[in-house]
Amino acid sequence: MTATILDGKKIAADILNELVDEVADFIQNNGTAPTLAAVLVGEDPASEVYVRNKRKACEQVGIDSRLLRLPATASTDDLLELVAKLNKDHEVHGILVQLPLPDGIDSKRILDAISPWKDVDVFHPENVGRLCQDRPRMLPCTPHGVLQILDRYRIPVQGKHVVIVGRSDIVGKPLAMLMMQRHSPLGSQAANATVTVCHSHTPDLMVHTRGADILVAAIGKPKYITAQMVKPGTVVVDVGINRTEAGIVGDVDFDQVREIASAITPVPGGVGRLTVAMLMRNTLLAAQNQL
Ligand code: GUN
Is the CATH number of domain 141-272 1.20.1280.260? Predict the structure, then answer.
């Protein structure tokens, strides 16, 4: 079997196209554009690329974006001051502090300081709690992107066994919550999946990964998921973005696994594109929520 390639680039482009009209409606009804403030501290090259892509997407859909830069030498207090200013600014609807922050900055304190109404990443503990209770204001961008890919390729999730490798706060944990949800918040499918979360201390990882109907790799290790870890016919979603000497690769050994899976997301051109598209949706939602 050779897998269907789940084209994140196309799905993201479709979502951005849908947003163009919705953003135009918002502007017409409210006389102001949804506005995203991106905060970039230091000069991490990968973060520069991510923020550039996010601002490009803003431009494409009609969202205003502001870029606020602080030097790598900035203190936690400097950043807290900037976040407080953005929280108070009624013209700013979404705030994104690009991670990772330089050593010495207390990331948790910064993320906790962002107004939950403007928290388009869904990192604030109040929003994470709301997600756990099945009443989110917005959905976390990358996990929502995973659901959107499955949804739009008509891959059912209900009743399936979803195995997530990785327990990060950004992907693994919130994705597990979304996959378990019983309702259908904010237009995504009610997932109702059975979820297993594996991590670096899971013994016999292969026993779990081979039990998956849908396998999500979000572990941050290049080509970690090999063909022998995948049951024939599994849907494989690769959330990894690893910079190697051979270029950007995912957490899945794509060339091997595509011969076994029924469907697979490529890297690049897979989930990463969706993260940016869902950030745009969240910025519009945040603006609507603050009317
Ligand atoms: N760095 C890597 N992924 C993300 C993300 O989703 N949001 C933010 N703010 N920073 C990141």
Answer: no
Percent of the chain surpassing pLDDT 90: 95
How do residues 47-61 score in pLDDT, each as one tens digit? 999 999 999 999 999
For ligand 1, atom 8, the nearest C-alpha belongs to 98
Question: Cα-flanking dihedrals φ and ψ of residue 249, to 5°?
Answer: -130, 160
Q: Which residues line ligand 1 (CB under 6 A)?
A: 96-99, 121, 141-142, 170, 275
Considering the chain, tell me which residue range(s) the CATH 3.40.50.10860 domain(s) occupy.
31-115
* DSSP for 13-71, written as a single string: HHHHHHHHHHHHHHHHHHSS--EEEEEEES--HHHHHHHHHHHHHHHHHT-EEEEEEE-
The listed CATH number (3.90.25.10, 3.40.50.11270, 3.40.50.10860, 1.10.150.120) that belongs to domain 31-115: 3.40.50.10860
- For ligand 1, atom 1, which residue shows the shortest CA distance? 99
- The question of whether 290 is a catalytic residue gets the answer no
pLDDT of residue 151: 93
Please answer whether residues 237 and 258 qualify as being in contact, where contact means their C-beta atoms are separated by less than 8 angstroms.
no
Nearest CA to ligand 1 atom 4: 99
| Maximum distance among all Cα pairs of the chain, rounded to whole angstroms | 57
Is residue 151 annotated as a catalytic residue, yes or no?
Answer: no
Q: Which of 283, 223, 211, 220 is nearest to 252 (CA)?
A: 223
How far apart CA 271 and CA 251 sit, in angstroms, is 12
Ligand 1 geometric centre to CA of 99 (Å): 5
